[in-house]
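Q: Predict the bound structure with zinc ion.
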Amino acid sequence: MAADEYPPVNPYVAGLLGHCPRCGKGHLFQGFLKLAPRCEVCGLDLAFADSGDGPAVFVMTIAGFIVVGAALWVEVAYAPPYWVHALIFLPLTVVVCAGLLRPTKSLLIALQYFNRAEEGQRADEN
Ligand SMILES: [Zn+2]
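A: Predicted complex:
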């Protein structure tokens, strides 16, 4: 089955749900962050998928806004001792980062597939 034989899949929905970017039904992940070798529904070879450090950069930025913003707000509003900050915001940092990493990685892979993004090649290499 060629790629154009599948119904169009919204890459944002498929990506955020961790589904295959081609069929929208198969699962992208084999473990928490480990990619499956291929889609179990349409057989799409996921060897092309390389999100690199992209998800980590987005997650660090978003988590930084959330956690630092919340810590500043709590400090200004309540001025608790530092151990209270550590008790609240260290686990919050882990939860926010772990919660965002998987959907961010699958979203970037879905967008990579949708936009046919790949490593640049010189014309004379083909
Ligand atoms: Zn699939």
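A: The radius of gyration is 19 Å.
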